[in-house]
């Protein structure tokens, strides 16, 4: 069943996305840190990339949202992520955990599961990472997802497992990305169907989606709408970017156009009319 935009909650509220300018604190990987900071600025948000625990107390008094990305793990980074997650729990800060590379090492998986205990607002990863996190068979390699984990039966198995997880972790909503995105909140679940394959051939797309979710949460938008909104917005930017590229496609052109679209699509009324998906 493909539902209408109204059912997908992409109602007039979506026209208010990115009108506010939340300060988003990101502890993220060095690979895509600059792309993430610029993506946030392009949607009228303010990024601060800060990892020194001695600053956290003061920073948490100013920030609207927190993004914790496991992409570049080290002993120091683990301590920073744990300290920020503790502070977020104590200050009720809207928090997104991106479980980058969780299928690659047991160290990342253990850390992700520890962070989950601190009641983050959202836990996200690509479909292979989220399957691994849930203890399901996963074909992910490194930080990349595998299309075999996107087969219909695998998506269904993951969404059903995540629904059980929301009973165990009622403060948290979950997102698994890929050609089809799965969103599972304690109340509702969705498959979302926007985007283009080129988004999988560029590093940092998932990282940026995590930051956009933190931005929407930081604008006071509740979890379900922030998740549907951030994924759909980013994927519609990808669709539009592709139409602006000359053929044969060069990925550097696609990247350029994707960032252009991030900075302008939200200024168009009713951009959300093109959202595709279904409640499950
Ligand atoms: N084949 C595809 N078709 C349509 N959209 C896609 C496809 N692959 C990824 N996307 C979209 O691209 C975004 C990033 O998803 P992806 O699963 O590639 O994240 P990721 O693996 O965490 O990325 P990265 O590790 O590079 O940050 C999501 O919004 C997702 O919906
Ligand atoms: C390639 C890569 N390695 C660690 S993080 C990262 C960026 C995608 O998340
Ligand atoms: Mg990722």
TrEMBL record:
CDD domains (UniProt xref): THZ_kinase (cd01170)
Domain of life: Bacteria
InterPro entries: Hyethyz_kinase, Ribokinase-like
Primary enzyme class: transferase
EC number in record: 2.7.1.50
Listed GO biological process terms: thiamine biosynthetic process; thiamine diphosphate biosynthetic process
Sites where the protein binds substrate: 49, 204
Binding site for ATP: 124, 177
Signal peptide: none
GO-annotated molecular function: ATP binding; hydroxyethylthiazole kinase activity; magnesium ion binding
Reactions performed catalytically: 5-(2-hydroxyethyl)-4-methylthiazole + ATP = 4-methyl-5-(2-phosphooxyethyl)-thiazole + ADP + H(+)
Assigned protein family: Belongs to the Thz kinase family.
HAMAP family: Thz_kinase
The protein, known as: Hydroxyethylthiazole kinase
Species whose genome carries this gene: Vagococcus carniphilus
């Amino acid at each position: 069943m493909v539902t209408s935009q109204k059912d997908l909650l992409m109602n007039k509220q979506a026209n208010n996305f990115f009108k506010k300018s939340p300060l988003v604190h990101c502890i993220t990987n060095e690979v895509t840190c600059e792309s993430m900071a610029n993506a946030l600025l392009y949607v009228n948000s303010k990024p601060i990339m800060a990892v020194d625990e001695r600053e956290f107390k003061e920073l948490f008094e100013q920030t609207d949202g927190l993004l914790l990305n496991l992409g570049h793990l080290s002993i120091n980074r683990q301590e920073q992520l744990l300290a920020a997650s503790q502070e977020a729990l104590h200050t009720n800060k809207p928090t997104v955990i991106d479980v980058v590379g969780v299928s690659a090492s047991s160290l990342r998986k253990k850390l992700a599961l520890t962070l989950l205990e601190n009641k983050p607002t959202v836990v996200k990863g690509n479909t292979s990472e989220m399957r691994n996190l849930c203890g399901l068979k996963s074909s992910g390699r490194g930080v990349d997802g595998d299309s075999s984990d996107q087969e219909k039966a695998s998506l269904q198995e993951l969404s059903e497992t995540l629904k059980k997880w929301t009973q165990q972790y009622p403060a948290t909503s979950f997102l698994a990305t890929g050609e089809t995105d799965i969103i599972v909140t304690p109340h509702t679940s969705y498959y979302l169907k926007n985007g283009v394959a080129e988004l999988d051939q560029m590093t940092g797309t998932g990282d940026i989606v995590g930051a956009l979710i933190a931005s929407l949460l930081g604008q006071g938008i509740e979890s379900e709408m922030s998740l549907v909104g951030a994924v759909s917005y980013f994927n519609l930017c990808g669709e539009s970017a592709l139409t602006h590229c000359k053929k044969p496609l060069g990925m550097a052109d696609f990247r350029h156009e994707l960032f252009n679209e991030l900075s302008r699509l939200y200024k168009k009324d009713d951009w959300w009319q093109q959202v595709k998906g279904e409640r499950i």
